[in-house]
Amino acid sequence: MELYSTKHISPIVSLKEAVLTGLPPDNGLYVPTKIPKLPSTFFDSIEEKDFREIAFTVGYELLQHAVDKSALKAIIDDAFNFDTPVVPLEENIHVMELFHGPTLAFKDYGARFMSRLMKYFLRDTNKEINILVATSGDTGGAVGYGFLGVEGINVTILYPKGKVSEVQEKQLTTIGGNVTTVEVDGNFDDCQHLVKTAFLDKELNAALNLTSANSINIARLIPQSFYYYQAYAKLKESGRPLVVAVPSGNFGNLCGGLLAQQMGLPIHQFIAATNINDVVPIYLKTGIFQSKPSVATISNAMDVGNPSNFPRILAIMGQDEQAVKNKIHGLAFDDDQTKKTMKEVHQRFGYTMCPHTAVAYLGLKTWLSKNQQPATGVLLSTAHPAKFMDVVTPAIGKTVSLPPALAEAYQKQKVAVPLSNRFDDLKAYLLSK
Ligand SMILES: *Cc1c(COP(=O)(O)O)cnc(C)c1O
């Protein structure tokens, strides 16, 4: 497998280099030079395969010998050791629950696959690798848990003191093992700045082999294509065209879907559902991409004003803007609509959605009501509602109970290293470890 940069300045690289460096030096994004097509026989019997078998077949075809067959099988079996259920909700609407991993959000798919792939590519070095990551809440947990117990790799997570939710702080500060958490006296921008400065610091890099676990690493994108096949496998018998609604922020999840579709997965229509951070829905309507400052909403994991995966959407679709506009329908919803939807879905079906999932449900319902043709709809549920109980509980008027993984985190003692937002303090701390 080879990858090029969307800016076309940096050279073409192997998967190993793309995964270990994260970003090309020209600051573009890595995209596969060739997207292989799966044989039609694969789709003829896909419903007989389980999620891990599907992931392996698709992954092996896409990675093309970059990873040894048995190693890839082991990586996939170990990374996806949890369920990916597709639950019926109402006539023609299903929910694919992507929150059964350790941090109860879909980012577990990307983080767990990336960590194991990195370990594989580092198997011949006996150097210890240090991952440094800044988080505003969700990513840190997924990366920390993704690398938990992965030998030879240590993780340091930086989060802004007092600026993450209670649930998020519990998750971030109780991981343990090879994962250390630093509570920075500052905001998320300070955390990000500290990480960027650390990567530029020669002394620190020489001493610690710093590596990023960047959210746009291609290793996080690839596994996000696997579960779209799962949706198709589970819903194939309906015989109707498949419509998939994706709650979107940085658009990594949707890129996974487009990758699957380009490999031959029959997806009739994608719905990119956003909150009022609607840069992409506006682009899909007008053809003009204009980033803007992000606005805070209750679906805060989608508060992105400049979706960094946008160039990848175009690249995966072969720069065919018309194809992008035909394949993806963009719809944006505000917080009032989201709250009302959480409440109504709970009342009508007894099903509790996180705010991001509710945005996707709104997108799917809106599309289905406007398009009279028969279709089977599936929406991606990106987080367990308990992760966002501060907004879900008042919306549905009922307390969301804690799933076991969270209840366990609540039992544990918070462990975090307090630091100022000065780089010298972070550097001294990292060197002293
Ligand atoms: C990250 C995240 C999203 C947005 O996914 P993108 O790949 O950034 O579009 C949606 N919902 C939840 C719960 C998330 O954590």
Key phrases:
single chain, 433 residues, alpha/beta, Rossmann fold, six-stranded mixed sheet, binds pyridoxal-5'-phosphate
Q: Kindly report the average pLDDT value.
A: 94
Distance between the termini: 37 Å
The bound ligands are:
pyridoxal-5'-phosphate
Low-confidence stretches: none
Write down the CATH class of the domain at 82-104 and 220-396.
Answer: Alpha Beta
The secondary structure category is: alpha/beta
Sheet with the most strands, sense and barrel status? 6 strands, mixed
The CATH topology label of the domain at 82-104 and 220-396 is Rossmann fold
- Shape field: globular
Continuous helix count: 20
- List the strand order in the largest sheet: 4-5-13-10-11-12
In what range is the share of β-strand residues?
15-25%
What is the name of the CATH architecture of the domain at 82-104 and 220-396? 3-Layer(aba) Sandwich
Radius of gyration: 21 Å
Number of DSSP strands?
Answer: 14
Helix content: 40-55%
GO molecular function, one term: threonine synthase activity
Domain Tryptophan synthase beta chain-like PALP: 83-373
Pfam families: PALP, Thr_synth_N
Protein name: Threonine synthase
